[in-house]
Amino acid sequence: MRIGELSERTGTPRRLLRYYEEQGLIAADRCPNGYRDYDERFVDRILQIRGLLDAGLPTRIIKQILPCLDKPRIIHFSDATPEMIATLEHERDRMTERIGCLVRNRDAIAEYLETVLSNDRARAAAARQASAGASAGASEG
Fold this sequence. Notes:
Elements: H1 3-10, H2 14-22, E1 29-30, E2 36-37, H3 42-54, H4 59-65, H5 82-140
Antiparallel strand pairs: 1-2
């Protein structure tokens, strides 16, 4: 697929896709006319990269852990410095905390919606009952 389609499917600006390519995070084949041609697998790869960037990881570390995201997994340990390991442990722990917070927020929103919708249904049922009672009283009179 061309860069425009990849951009559209991932919600990632073309300029950023070119940057990912410069950083070695993705690679495009080249068509005879020079256009970039991306494999379908890069749709998921871009979404993973963006998630890792959003989590605070720099592109140099993302480049090192990207093989862990592929199948079959090919992991190279030669670049795993103590600093990189410490950074990854810190980011993993930060993500775990964020996931816990997101779960609590999701559950609070779900509880709120359940209560609001339940109350709305109860009000609607009461209104129907009142309307039915008024109709029955009018037909008796």
